[in-house]
């Protein structure tokens, strides 16, 4: 399956969903008002597009990691230039199983901050690993943040922790099933014996 539009579109992460289908996150330059928009897409077990949601703002949004949550929805992390306190802030977005945005949170300061890895903890909260240029001892430092199931970091003060109002669109993407030619490579392996 190929899913996209006229411009650059990609997938950063894929999970198999509890219904046997698949979900992907990435970025799209084809759908949405900004140059780069975060995209969450759900497919059936046969690879048929069920729905696609694009999280957009006035700047750029991209996702690096996501999970299917214990309630069947999705939690996503990445970076946003549109919302937050700085150049780029880490975001955590929670969607329902049908792609409806439940809430979004950002974390960051005046520098460049982003989420790279995400999992749901046994208490239902979320743990994000990433980077921060706003806080720490040097140029870029490691970021490790623990959120509640509602996206709250306990005792996190503003403007570091925020709840932006993001715009979510449902793009009509072009889905194609390209014919791929598979050939046997003429490559012949050789054994090299070290002296």
Specify the overall morphology.
globular
SSE succession: EEEEEEEEEEEEEEE
Euclidean distance between termini CA atoms = 48 Å
Largest sheet properties: 5 strands, antiparallel
> Average pLDDT, to the nearest integer?
80
Name the poorly predicted regions.
166-191
How many distinct helices?
Answer: 0
Q: Estimate percent helicity.
A: under 10%
Structural category is mainly beta
The Rg value, from CA coordinates, equals 19 Å
Note the beta-strand portion: over 45%
Neighbour order of strands in the largest sheet: 2-3-4-5-14
What does this structure look like?
- The protein has 195 residues and is mostly beta strands.
- It has one domain.
- The chain is built from no helices and 15 strands.
- The chain has strands at residues 2-4, 9-16, 22-28, 37-43, 49-56, 61-68, 74-80, 89-95, 101-107, 113-120, 126-132, 141-147, 161-162, 167-169, 174-176.
- It has a 5-stranded antiparallel β-sheet with strand order 2-3-4-5-14, with no helix packed on it. The protein has a 5-stranded antiparallel β-sheet with strand order 6-7-8-9-13, with no helix packed on it. Strands 10-11-12 form a 3-stranded antiparallel β-sheet, with no helix packed on it.
- The chain is globular, with a radius of gyration of 19 Å.
